[in-house]
Predict the 3D structure of the following.
Amino acid sequence: MKTEDHSDVIVYFDNQYVPLHDAKVSILTHALHYGTGVFDGIRGYWDERQEQLFLLRPMEHFRRWKANSGILRIGIAPDASELCGIAVELIRRNRFHSHVYVRPLAYKSAERIGVNPDDRDAFSVIVVPFGDYLDSKHGLHAGVVSWRRIEDNAIPGRAKICGSYVNSALAGDEARRNGFDEAIFLTEAGHVAEGATCNIFLVRAGKLVTPPGSENILEGITRNCVMELARNELHLEVVERPVDRSELYLADEIFFTGTAVEVAPVTQVDHRAVGSGAIGPVAAELRFLYLEATRSHLANYRHWLLPAYEPAHVESAEPEPVLAGAGDGDLWGV
Ligand code: PMP
């Protein structure tokens, strides 16, 4: 995320819309000491031509966030539909006309020493302007790091638990200090898991291969989008199976997927060229399709998107009534 000053941005904190500089927690907050929070990340894409900001699969992200919070027994009262309403309201109140990133965060909020969590929970939703996370247009250089991906029976990696991101921070830091753009994690069993903040795909013998959920990966929503695009648009077979390290060196193509990295081709892995060393055709096409779909240019994938503004681009100061009480159903089909 960029380091600009966001202190005047309106955020949702303590069930209210307040400026970020007023959204403060105590230094004794449980989650700050013990990592007992769960977050998610959602992109919103501004389309200049349509003067519209499209949230990408917000229902799916908010459902995942609520479900993952349940792993830590953190309760979030609003349903996914109401949470979409909060995100839309934040975009409108801040009058964002750029790409944005939505960061919901639920956490154990007790203010005391002691690791045992109690039932004081809190959550907030923050939306900030957001551009490119990694410049992947020309292909990334990735490296396997010495840190191993956290095991499900230690801290569930699929849960997006705040404390588990120490694992990603160590991996990302090692990779960058060694001259790579992004890390590749192996599991304790030595299989390829994912990047520090993204999932990984390989193209081998014309098939798209990616590690399954049981390899300690985060079950990415971008991963899911890309699998759908590959099957529907490129008619590729997509295989979820354990991947050996040496397959990285034999793959025709490799790319990462994630909300922040989008679809990011990898042209070098551990100082070896991937395939020809140039961005491969599958990664290039999937990247193109993903960027088009997320900006509402592909009719077949509009159900992934929730427009934040009225079609006529009327800005309202009040919460959007159509969202209220819409339930947790298939309003946006995600
Ligand atoms: N793995 C990790 C460790 C991540 O942090 C992310 C980003 N959320 C992903 C994979 C990709 O998930 P998604 O496509 O849902 O953003």
